[in-house]
Design a protein that fits this description.
Radius of gyration: 26 Å
Distance between the termini: 68 Å
Largest sheet: 2 strands, antiparallel
Strand order of the largest sheet: 1-2
Shape: globular
Strand content: under 5%
Length: 394
């Protein structure tokens, strides 16, 4: 009897072990449906990137036209129109900053176009006169730089240090607004800085106009190069969409996490919060930093939701919801909360960071930083759920 019962017991044990083995957790990437959803999310991400850069390029072209018109006939109205066009284009560019940090078309070496497009903080006297230094800057150095051209300004960008910025959004911003010497508003550069008649102010008005024209045209060409790399059928976009979806989503999450954490919570807000220095804010000449921060946060949310404007498609959110619904709900809630927290910071940003400790304005900045840090942790958790190793700087 003992011998006859041993075999059935062994079979039962093997069956039990087999059932236990089959119920063990497996990689989500072994599920064909997960991989299909991930590929769809990657494709939608590429569409969001392309559409966002298209919007930015169109607005930047409008800015270029306004700057050209102003330089052709400098006037107060023309300067105002150029400034408004810069603000409108900047608004759209802010949502594209999340498409960085993984050596894509905007920041891949050796070109690293982002360094020409959006480097900051900018030492104003590197470009033009400032208070107390009427002969400062490249513009006023006729001996050192007798001829201004694109190649020169590209070479000078960052040549002497990280704040020796000569090109990009913030160079244009400074040339339109000038130094921000007011507590309650942006810079007040007069249109007469560009007049070559007797009414002209500051020196070398013709070189100032030439400089502004060069860096504006350069920005447009750089933005166009990034835009074209993501256009349908472009080699980079095709390679990105065809890549293993786990690797593609690693890049997506790296962009989200890097902008959310080290960049926004750290460099763009945390540093300025600690130092209380106006020079540490992003768009200090125009007092547009509060909008920079807001659109950056919206861009992160757009990527997670697969959203461009009012249009949505396959998304990282829907993928995560199928793997860990609670985590997806948490991150969606945190992304919305960080956007709202940044919106609650009273403008201008430089006044909020300089407010007294415990004041509502300064507390609003602290709350926004905390919200960004919380969502960055959840972005890392999403990566872990997708078996993606994400090395985020803090």
């Amino acid at each position: 009897m003992a011998a006859s019962t041993a075999k059935p017991l062994s079979i039962a044990l093997l069956l039990a072990l087999g059932c236990e083995s089959s119920s063990a957790p497996s990689s989500p990437w072994e599920d064909a449906e997960v991989r299909a959803q991930a590929s769809a999310a990657t494709g939608q991400y590429a569409q969001v990137v392309a559409a966002s850069y298209t919007d930015t390029l169109v607005a930047a072209e409008a800015m270029q036209a306004e700057i050209d018109a102003f330089l052709a006939a400098p006037s107060p109205a023309g300067l105002t129109a150029a400034r408004e066009a810069w603000l409108a284009a900047r608004e759209l560019y802010g949502e594209t900053e999340v498409f960085r940090f993984y050596e894509g078309p905007i920041d891949a070496e050796p070109d690293n176009l982002e360094g020409q497009i959006n480097s900051w903080p900018l030492d104003e006297v590197y470009i033009d006169y400032v208070e107390g230094e009427p002969d400062g800057g490249i513009i006023n150095d006729l001996t050192g730089y007798p001829t201004l051209d694109r190649a020169l300004l590209v070479d000078l960008n960052g040549a002497g240090g990280e704040d020796d910025i000569s090109t990009g959004w913030h160079a244009i911003e400074f040339l339109l607004w000038g130094q921000d010497l007011r507590a309650d508003g942006p810079g007040e550069r007069p249109h007469t800085d560009y007049l070559t008649t007797a009414e002209g102010t500051a020196a070398n008005q013709d070189r100032r106009a030439e400089y502004l024209k060069i860096v504006t045209d350069l920005l447009l060409d750089d933005l166009r190069a990034v835009h074209d790399a993501w256009a349908p059928g472009a080699a980079y976009r095709e390679e990105f969409v065809a890549a293993d979806p786990q690797q593609a989503l690693k890049n997506v999450l790296l962009g989200m996490g890097s902008l959310s954490g080290a960049e926004l919570a750290g460099e763009r807000m945390g540093v300025a919060y600690m130092t209380r220095e106006q020079e540490d804010e992003h768009s200090c000449f125009s007092d547009n930093t509060h909008r920079d921060l807001y659109t950056n946060a919206v861009g992160i949310e757009n990527v997670y939701l697969g959203r461009h404007g009012s249009t949505t498609g396959a998304s990282l959110s829907s993928l995560v919801a199928g793997i860990d619904p609670a985590l997806d709900e948490t991150l969606r809630s945190q992304l919305h909360a960080s956007v709202e927290a940044i919106a609650a910071i009273p403008a201008p940003f430089d006044q909020a960071i300089q407010a007294a400790d415990g004041s509502p304005a300064r507390q609003a900045v602290a709350d926004a930083i905390a919200a960004l840090k919380a969502q960055t942790a959840s972005i890392a958790a999403v990566a872990a759920a997708l078996e993606i190793t994400l090395n985020l700087e803090e």
